[in-house]
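Cross-posting from the modeling subforum.

Setting up a comparison between two proteins and wanted a second pair of eyes on the formatting. Protein 1 (sequence, then structure tokens):
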Amino acid sequence: MTEERATRRLVIALIVGGIMPVVDTTIVAIGLHRIGEDLGADVATLQWVSTVYLLALAVVIPVAGWVQARLGDRNAWILASGIFLAASVLCAAASGIGELIAFRALQGAGAGLLLPLMQTLPMQRTPRAAMARTMAVMSVPISLGPVIGPVLGGLVLSTLDWRWLFLINLPLGAVGLVLAVLWLPGGRSGARTTLDAIGLLLLAPGLVGVLLALSNLAGGTGAGEVAVWLPAVVGLVLLVAFVPWTLGRRDPLVDLRLLGVRTLRASTVAMAFLGANLYAATFLLPLALQADRGVSVLEAALLLIPQGVGSLLARAGAGRLVARWGPRAVAISGFALVAVMTVPFALDDGTLALAVWAVVLFVRGLGLGVVLVPIMASGYLDVAPDRMPHASAFSRMAQQLGGAFGTATAALVLAAVTTASGTRVGFDAAFVVVIGICAAAMAASLALPGRRGVVR
């Protein structure tokens, strides 16, 4: 078998298996309103169904490189898929909101292994000159997720219980496992290393503490309450302690020294803002349509499809745009378009026609579709192949942590303003937060590479 054919099969297997955690995010988002009604959860508690998934995903991402080196490419992928599928079954069987949140954390752990492996494996086999093109192909699941997720979610919830939102992962996951067994290489792509257990024990609870504080604040707990300041202080202390610990190790959990590479550093910061924007909007849009505009879950799903279609269409030409204009210009332009197309939601007083919502979401999707490729490809420009697992860890951690913070912040503003001024004003204020995140993302993108050294 030629190397090109083997790489093509590798990419197909990774896309089929990797689309599960992406689709799962959009499916669950469309069903949050129904889940909250069934399990008796308020908005502040309900947002943890999304936030804990992103947090667990981010915490596990640094371990992916060690798992890959320890088990080999194929076995690492099969393990990650198995965890994700088992957790999906447990989520479907949850009898209360607490159980669902716990099982979502396990599901996020499986996704935390899948996503960086999906990114690292093909990039380790791709010449530098073809990175943008390969990244555009591997970003297809992220584009298809917003298209497939709302449709599947709407169809499921219009005829079945919300628990089927998780069970539909099983057939796709089974196909992905078969392809992984047949087409993924069984060897190891990097040197075998030891797990930095102390680093993991510092990083994981540190992240959890900060997010727990923010979630409690979103639930209405005052900043001076123990439930807010104690986990915040503990989390920050652990994260600060993680820095000198990891800098002193030869085989760290996350190689912070790589942040000295300008392109990777700029890519990581921009990716955090992209994640915050993407997941905050994913949390808000279905809730706004159902709770504020009063549309059915199926109507909400159909209205969200144009954003995914726009993202998918734009993604197809993103690599060519990057080759012509450079990562910096493409990313800034994309974020600017997303910001402008979020303004109508922040100004909606209930009279904006739903057809206009669909058109705005389509154009917003075009913006989202072009920003990911220049940001992710830039992060690999000056990184050696054997350090790419660490680069993938930075990229994925930044996106998921940004998503967790963005979701929690949007929920905080939504809950606080809704209590004070009503539902509609609450959603308007939350969408203003999303616009602010877009502005910060544009500023962060100024540090991305220009046309010099552009990957094609």
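Protein 2 (same layout):
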Amino acid sequence: MKNKKSIYPWWVFIATCLISIIGFGLLVNTIGLFFEPVSKSFGVGRASVSLMGTFQNAAAAITLLFAGKIMSKVNLRWLLTICFGIIAISMLSLTQAHSLIHFYVAWIIIGICQPIAITLSIPVLLGNWFNQKLGTVMGIALGLSAVGGTLFNPIIAGIITHHGWRMGYLAEGLLILLILVPTALFLQAKPNNKHLAYGEKTVNKQENIEHSGFTLGQAFKMPVFYAIALAMLVLQYVSGSVQHISGHIVNIGLPLTTGATVVSGLMLGAAAGKISIGYLLDRFNARIVLFFYSLFGAIGWFGQIFLNNGNLLIGSAFILGLGQGICLVALPYLIREEFGAKDYSNILSIINMLGAFAMSISVYVDGLLFDKTGSYNIGWWINAIAFIISFIALFLTLKTNKHQVSNPDSI
């Protein structure tokens, strides 16, 4: 059966861009701005405040155990709408918080909703709707999370500085409620007879692609599964550290606004890294691409250790931001390339679960290391080494032929 080319995949692409800008760029990437003012407001250590990030990511990790299966069985439009609504209400409730317990509970609830609404929705939706140029569109959509971070970090920092952290949470909650909830209402999860995925001209071919690849059980028998899982684990640990960068900048004697600008530099670098790595993965050998982006990540974190000039720190943050493209774009892309579409959301969910646990540990460990040593440098050394470890694991296990999923029966 033939069908005319549908423009619906591009609406899905636009929707995922909005989810990335607001979901990742605002909700995830600005949480660190609240650590210092909330710490002062309640008179507690930074490790205690950063526990809200630990609880958030721990809840997300547990949810990821079954999030992939839920997304494959429940109407995704309503599932995303409900999740974004709950996240918005939880953020708005923090404007009335008078104890750290309120923060912990709110961020646990957000953590439960986050894997479905943000972490998995973008790669799953794009994986369903783009059988060609997947790396490119995934890179652009996920790269916009960094654009959102670049945009929102100075805005939220300004609101906190001039109006307090409660108004910061009010602004974030309203943006999620007024933009992402309506966006979710107009989404369709999978192609159908009327709207085909990009790159497909017949329904039969589309159905064959959706059923090709490996199940989760088959993936467990493949070394590349464990290499990607290890890379996700160590690089998500690194991602958790990003929440402490603004605190690091303040700690070495520079103002919070400079810290927000350094984070914005990182987000701008991450935007460039995510967009470019997706484009390059569509065209070049994955090992070569991963080598250069791993190098960027390691060099950037070393810069954060040894530099103390604001402009140089911004440049270093931009470079380490380039390396962030591996975690959010390259790994979901490689999971699709290595294991196919058959059980993509479930395999992606399980691997992301490991990363979420690592991120939850990282946020707390970095805060604890700071409280014990008065510096974030030990944490930054760990981050640089993480990029080296992830590259070695992937280099040794990735298949050499691009765009070719092996026959599951051969396992």
